[in-house]
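User: Hello! My lab partner asked me to get a predicted holo structure for this protein. The small molecule is zinc ion, SMILES included with the sequence. Please write out the structure tokens.
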Amino acid sequence: MSPSVTSLCHKRPPPVPLSPISMPFPKPQSRASARRAKARHKASVIASVRRQIAQRDTTCRVCGKAFGWGEQTPEMHELTSRAALRGKPPEEIFTPENCVLLHRSCHRDVTEHRVTLAPVHLDRGATGDLVSERRQTHG
Ligand SMILES: [Zn+2]
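Assistant: Hello! Below are the structure tokens for the protein in complex with zinc ion.
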């Protein structure tokens, strides 16, 4: 007896989907993609506030001189550091009140505590005037 048409066309059963429980790491991809989405969101918030403050800070907020290349390249600085605002959403860290543009060299002076930079009006933050002061060096 010859095999019937149906048995020749017999399809393999679809593969049994892996049970999430049987996999050693249940959701590595979704976690990684969530992290990527979070990083993308943060980058877009930073880019947005940088565009806003670039309109306002046309000169360095420490020395008041024009931006340029090399040590004069504009860099974004947060008056209240990201570390101090750890856990806050990027929208609360990267705001025009908290962010300023400084020369690369002036930024280094601030981050290495040779220069202090503080808003005159705390409620206005960087949208108001800032006072910058070079610390006295000893020795
Ligand atoms: Zn400067």
